[in-house]
Amino acid sequence: MSTVVAVGAQWGDEGKGKIVDWLGPRADLVARFQGGNNAGHTLVVEGETTILHVVPSGILHDGSLNLIGPGVVVDPGILLEEVRKLEERGILKDPSRLRVSGRAHVILPWHRALDAARESKAGKGRIGTTGRGIGPAYEDKVARRGIRVADLRQPEALREKLERIAEQKNFELTSLHGAEAVDVGELFEACVAWGRALEPYIDHTGRILDRSLRAGKNVLFEGAQGTFLDIDHGTYPFVTSSNCVAGAVCTGSGIGPTKIDRVIGITKAYTTRVGEGPFPTELTDELGEELRRAGAEFGATTGRPRRCGWLDAVLLREAVTVNGLTDLAINKLDILSGFDELQICTAYEIDGKVTEDFPMTLAEAERAKPVYETLPGWREDVRGMTRIEELPDAARRYIERIESLTETPAALLSVGPGREETIIVRELFD
Ligand code: GDP
Ligand code: IMO
Ligand code: MG
Fold first, then answer.
1. Which residues are identified as catalytic?
2. How crowded is the C-beta side of 345, counted as CA atoms within 13 Å?
3. Which pLDDT tens digits describe the chain residue by residue (430 residues)?
4. Closest ligand 2 atom to 275 CA
5. Strand 98-101 with 65-68, pairing
6. Best mutation site among 227, 292, 328, 332 for ligand 1 pocket (most ligand atoms within 8 Å of CB)
7. CA 425, CA 324: separation in Å to the nearest integer?
8. Which burial class, exposed, middle or buried, applies to 347 when counting CB atoms under 10 A from its CB (0-12, 13-18, 19+)?
9. Quick check: CB of 269 below 6 Å from ligand 1?
């Protein structure tokens, strides 16, 4: 038995989907444990691109079981549409390959409406959410008035619950935001239909995990978002509404911390961020444009241009700490080909003081100026390289510098979006 957790070490979109898909054949189970369809995980296999928002990234491998754990928030319409598209391609013929926790909370239309209304009203204070209703759905979960996936199969109790919640939701939507109220009757009908359609997938995923671990299976946990979007450890309030760090695996899937063997932090060879919030190494000049162009840095969920900048080792060191990273996956090395010089941020200068630690407050993070170290770039195209020895010397030095700054070894390197464009340095599963 061996368990590996894969989490984003930056602000999301590090290439988690690609790495999870690549690791897929080594895992018997792949499980999502937090977030919802704010995630957009891109898998490129033999030239065909699949973007997954809720379904775990192990799904393209016939042999794998894919779990959506209780810590995830599920938009039933989106999940069913994703399932339909996979079925159409002949991928999800057997529904038993996808299990959805009955305890996962449901994202309802009023969550999306509230997300949109609040953001449009917030002006400069907006977070730049994905508009998928994630925050409002997690709010209801914590306020103990949420609807869970299993509730969709209990129509009588469900109607009563929906009517009770609707009063409050529609009051906020209409009176506070001047938005349209949600029709509870229609919503109830939709919920019943979703419950029926989801029936073949609803299960006790915690029990499946426990049994699998006892049977000596390999399990891969797939994080969504990233360390600095974590509700506690990220750049609050410019974060998402769930814990995205490795610790969330336990609460979001139902296993204890003693069951986790390795935690791999996934990072780009540079840094990106979508949405508002501090980003010390952001490049707002031509260089940033070049990174965006070369890396095709546009969101997989919303299509928004991603903000781009140099690699930030201060950020990565903090990610090592809060996730207990044992390994790194360094992605998109191919995008750095052709730069004469590369910069790595090794410290911040905040109010004239140099620090190697990520600051505690948002205000300090906003004032942080990067202290850079310059490394030589490389000209060679690294795509197609399959062994670390093939990489140009400068690329290897760049990787080694990241390893020494983070005191964490790289287990995987990625040199292109395709599944095969991956260099393995060390095995993660036993
Ligand atoms: P995720 O949310 O962490 O799964 O990442 P996204 O899928 O949102 O964004 C990562 C993007 O980079 C996707 O378009 C991937 O296909 C692409 N990608 C991943 N690894 C590499 C790589 O090594 N090189 C290149 N050029 N693209 C990559
Ligand atoms: P993956 O899994 C990048 C960002 C949003 C916004 C903030 C809050 O593909 O890496 P939310 O809709 O969650 O309330 O938005 O978090 N965000 C992401 N950024 N990748 C993601 O997921 C993200 N999910 C949310 O842009 O800044
Ligand atoms: Mg993404």
1. 13, 41
2. 28
3. 899 999 999 999 999 999 999 999 999 999 999 999 999 999 999 999 999 999 999 999 998 999 999 999 999 999 999 999 999 999 999 999 999 999 999 999 999 999 999 999 998 889 999 999 999 999 999 999 999 999 999 999 999 999 999 999 999 999 999 999 999 999 999 999 999 999 999 999 999 999 999 999 999 999 999 999 999 999 999 999 999 999 999 999 999 999 999 999 999 999 999 999 999 999 999 999 999 999 999 988 889 999 999 999 999 999 999 999 999 999 999 999 999 999 999 999 999 999 999 999 999 999 999 999 999 999 999 999 999 999 999 999 999 999 999 999 999 999 999 999 999 999 999 8
4. 27
5. parallel
6. 332
7. 20
8. middle
9. no
Q: For residues 201 and 102, give the distance between their C-alpha atoms in angstroms, rounded to a whole number.
A: 9
Residue given tokens 């903090």 in the structure block: 318
What CA–CA distance (Å, rounded) separates 392 from 380?
7
Is the CB of 128 within 6 Å of ligand 2?
yes
**Residue 425, amino acid:** V
The protein residue whose alpha carbon is closest to atom 13 in ligand 1 is 42
Whether 278 lines ligand 2, by a CB cut-off of 6 Å, is: no
Position 343: which residue type?
Answer: Q
Distance 16 CA to ligand 2 centre (A): 13
| 39 ligand 2 Cβ < 6 A | yes
Contact 312, 281 (CB under 8 A): yes
Cβ(113)–Cβ(75) below 8 Å: no
pTM: 0.98
| Separation of alpha carbons 232 and 360, rounded Å | 11
